[in-house]
Amino acid sequence: MSENKTEVLVGGVVLAVALGFLAYAGKTTGMTRGGSEYQLSASFRSADGVSVGTDVRLAGVKVGRVTSVDLDPATYRASAKFTVLDGINVPDDSAVAISSEGLLGGNYVEIMPGGSPFYFAAGDEIEFTQGSVSLVSLLMKFVSGSEDGAAK
Fold first, then answer.
1. Which of 136, 116, 117, 140 is nearest to 128 (CA)?
2. Range with top average pLDDT, 34-38, 74-78, 131-135
3. Pfam family of this protein, just one (predicted)?
4. CB-CB neighbours of 40 under 10 Å
5. Are 67 and 54 in contact (CB under 8 A)?
6. Whole-model pTM?
């Protein structure tokens, strides 16, 4: 009977540690809500490397995450919706770009704040955007030495 109590106790400890780990992992990856957020949207010519859960950063600090990326059938542009933490006011002349962490790093959405004294409200769309840049096309332009990437 003593062994049975020990097994139940050890099983309970393992279960508690597993639940704690899941809660920690969800919080650090942004899968759970750590605070209240508001939603903004933007339209990109190319949204390569951006998917649901991609970081949204301001000055290199994570301030939100992408919640959806869809194709707008009317404009053939990628429409992205993302959240920003409450308390972080984004000026209404700000721009949004898809940036890369480096050659082998992933992409993230970068908010480049403007200087306006007015701020975006929840649900607003940011007009000034820059899509992702294809590394392959840049390398082809560099190697070929031409504007369109074709050999001379």
1. 116
2. 74-78
3. MlaD
4. 24
5. no
6. 0.68
